[in-house]
Amino acid sequence: MVILRHKLQLAFIVIVSIALGLLLPSFYKAANQAMGISKDVSTPKIRSSRPPLPPSSPPQTHPCTCGKGSKLLKDFIPPEQYEELQQQRAKEWKQYKERTTSVLSKPLYALPNSPLQYPIQGFTVQPLQPTLIPGLGMYAETRNSYKVVLKVSRGILNVVKKTTEATVEGEGSSTLTVESSKPHVINELLSNVSYTSAFYHINSGDLATFQFEDDEVVFPIAIKRTQMPILYKMGKDISSQVTIITKTFLRYPQLNKLIDSIRLFYTSVKIIIADDSIEPQKVSGDNIEQYIMPPSQGWFAGRNLGVSQVTTKYFLWVDDDFLFTKDTKIEKFVEVMEAIPDLDLVGGSVKENRFYFSLFYEEGDEEEGGCLYRKSHGHFHTLPGYPECFLADGVVNFFLARTDSVRKVGFDPKLQRVAHSEVFMDGMGSLMVASCSGVSVGHQSNSKTNKEYMKFRKPGEKDKVSKNQLHFSKNYLKCVKWG
Fold it and tell me: Among 82, 98, 104, which residue's Cα sits nearest to residue 153?
């Protein structure tokens, strides 16, 4: 009975072995084809059983799709100007990609069961300054001799401490070879290898190749100039934390009502006014700064001027026809921003309007450009600890912002009368934006009685065309859609 059971077990093993012998080649072939590799692997070996790595070259770009209702921006370009403008923006796009694409963007893949140890993240060096490479090591099975090779492309390698128990070649060059019969000696030397960038650049990178026999790995080296911190001295009172900014044009009655309402709740907060009225009128009051601009410079130019004069950590943006109420609680905005340092801007509501939106951007290809879709009332998840707030890409014209963050993005002065979403478009990927309920500002209902102002209020067709042309050339967009 025992002999019969053993025979059955042996027969089962043989059958499974034959089945695997038939199936495994097909499995490996199918796996390779799924990964786009045409090489036929009929009999996998133990050492070559690692799956092939994906290609490390950047992915191919494809034209993006303009959804129903999108504006094709090339339709706003005069035919006789299109070819020249297309060439200009293609040149600018190429330079932009060169400035913003780093060697560190290249995908890297770690091999399984590698005997090599190396830093996979966080190794940063100052340009032109030698820095020890942390975490290098070789842990292989026993051999008569061990040899590792380290290569870089944008720097030089050196060994700080040497020993007579190993051979070191290539010091002061981009390729360093270390060989010894003792693995602990290899590791001791590897712990003393330094990298020095060969070129000065404030934000660049290098890829180091580390090799032992058939095992080769690549790890990133960030080359980055340390930035000087810019900090603010914040007192406990709101006037040392926040400056209120507004832009005015021919609406002095509304502006004065706004100021009166601010002073009911905040008596000492500085108010900055950017004024491009055709015939400016002096606005007086304690802690008010009025900056007179050339006439009709526009909405975003005034915003730039106002932000440039802020000396506090935060500024609060308001339109000149808003009204502060008991619900205009700047302190609540500051509380959220201080609690979540990643945030750059937080918006509230204007009357009952808590306007916010999300942006969806496809880069597209190099020839036509990208596609942008703005989804009104689109947002992301809530802020931790603040269920009344959620993240978005843009908010209403009533917001508290981190001064330094907004200065880095700026407001394009080419946009004079038709502009709002554009600062959030330019800040996409740079500005972390949130919208919170519970903080609101009022809105004056008598703005339309100002006949002189209303002559300029509605943008003409020329302004709309100009804005679309700007999106085409500046943002390298193929189409836009406002939802």
Answer: 104
With tokens 């190749």, the residue in question is 209
Strand-strand pairing, 382-383 and 386-392: antiparallel
Q: Which 3 state secondary structure label does DSSP give 426?
A: helix
249 within 8 A of 453, measured Cβ to Cβ: yes
Question: Which uninterrupted H or E stretch holds 60?
Answer: none
Contact yes or no for 437/349 (Cβ under 8 A): yes
Place of tokens 């601010």: 262
Q: Please write the tens of the pLDDT for every residue from 322-367.
A: 999 999 999 999 999 999 999 999 999 999 889 999 999 999 998 8
pTM score, two decimals? 0.81
Q: Which are the contacts of 229, defined by CB distance < 8 A and separation ≥ 6?
A: none
d(CA 366, CA 386): 41
> Where do the H-state alpha helices sit in 309-459?
330-339, 403-409, 421-426, 451-457
Amino acid (1-letter code) at residue 293 = M
- The structure tokens listed for 141 are 């099975």
Handedness of CA 107, 113, 118, 119 (dihedral sign): positive
Tell me the pLDDT tens digit for each residue of 118-158.
Answer: 999 999 999 999 999 999 999 999 999 999 999 999 999 99
Give 65: exposed, middle or buried? Use CB within 10 Å, 0-12, 13-18, 19+: exposed
400 near 345, Cβ under 8 Å? yes
336 with 343: CB under 8 angstroms?
yes
3 state DSSP class of 323:
strand
For CA atoms 153, 159, 165, 168, the dihedral sign is positive
Asked if residue 316 lies in contact with residue 399, where contact means CB atoms within 8 angstroms, the answer is yes
* H helix runs in 358-460, sequence order: 403-409, 421-426, 451-457
In this structure, what DSSP letter does residue 353 have? B
CA–CA dist 392, 344 (Å, integer): 12
What would the two tokens of residue 11 be?
A: 């027969």
- Under a CB-based contact definition with an 8 Å cutoff, are residues 307 and 406 in contact? yes
